[in-house]
Design brief:
The protein is an alpha+beta fold and 124 residues long. Strands 1, 2, 3, 4, 5, 6 and 7 form a seven-stranded antiparallel beta sheet that branches. A hairpin with a 5-residue loop joins strand 2 and strand 3.
């Protein structure tokens, strides 16, 4: 699995200017360049949601994902479902990358307040 910093650098290198997961139930993430052309795509599943405040919640503990059919990673390790009092962003990324590695993801990507596991990544 590639680290999130390396993945972000690669996406920047190929010219990504934005991402889109609509409709989210399809589990597809697309990256676009400044001309609005799709330049990469993959499958995604939510790992965790950051906030509100200094906390994050694992996606498997967010009931609306299941009811709406949004893909998420089921519980993969023994950590808590909700972590409060986050002191540094690195610990959140470390947890997300640990879960993503267990799930055999290509890398973790940040979509707004969500950290998602990306699989089947390919440039278009």
């Amino acid at each position: 699995m590639q680290g999130h910093k390396e993945a972000k650098a690669k996406l920047t290198e190929i010219g990504v200017s934005r991402w889109d997961t609509n409709p989210p139930q399809e589990g597809i993430i697309k990256w676009y360049n400044s001309n609005n052309d799709v330049i990469a795509k993959g499958k995604y599943a939510v790992i965790l949601s950051v906030g509100p405040g200094l906390k994050y919640t694992m996606a498997y503990d967010i009931g609306i994902y299941k009811s709406m059919g949004i893909p998420f990673i089921e519980k993969k390790e023994d950590g808590p479902a909700v972590v409060e009092g986050i002191k540094e962003e690195a610990s959140t990324w470390a947890r997300a990358e640990k879960v993503a590695a267990i799930a055999k993801a290509d890398f973790v990507y940040q979509c707004s307040t969500l950290l998602v596991a990306v699989t089947e990544f390919e440039e278009c």
